[in-house]
Amino acid sequence: MSPTQCPSGSVRPAAVVNADIRDLWRRSGGHLSPEDEEQYQRLLVEWAAATNGSDRPAA
Residue 28 belongs to what domain range? Predict the structure, then answer.
């Protein structure tokens, strides 16, 4: 399953992005290729936008 873009500036739910992240790690066997690493970084940015920082632990 590859991540899909939402129309014009909308943000996918964090749970959907998280599922894509988990799927990427599962498919890679825990060892990301350079291409997978790029996708992972994009997904992390998307996840952060979706959570708006709300899933971060308190410092």
Answer: 14-50
pLDDT tens-digit readout, 22-44: 999 999 999 999 999 999 999 99
Neighbouring residues of 36: CB distance < 8 A, sequence distance ≥ 6: 24, 28
Residue 39, token pair as written in the block: 């996708």
Task: Enumerate residues 6+ apart whose C-beta is below 8 A from 1.
Answer: 20, 23
Alpha helices per DSSP H over 1-59: 14-28, 34-51
Q: How many CB atoms lie within 10 A of CB 47?
A: 20
The total of structural domains in the chain comes to 1
Q: Report the amino acid identity of residue 22.
A: R
Domain assignment present for 29: yes
Q: Kindly report the pTM of this predicted structure.
A: 0.72
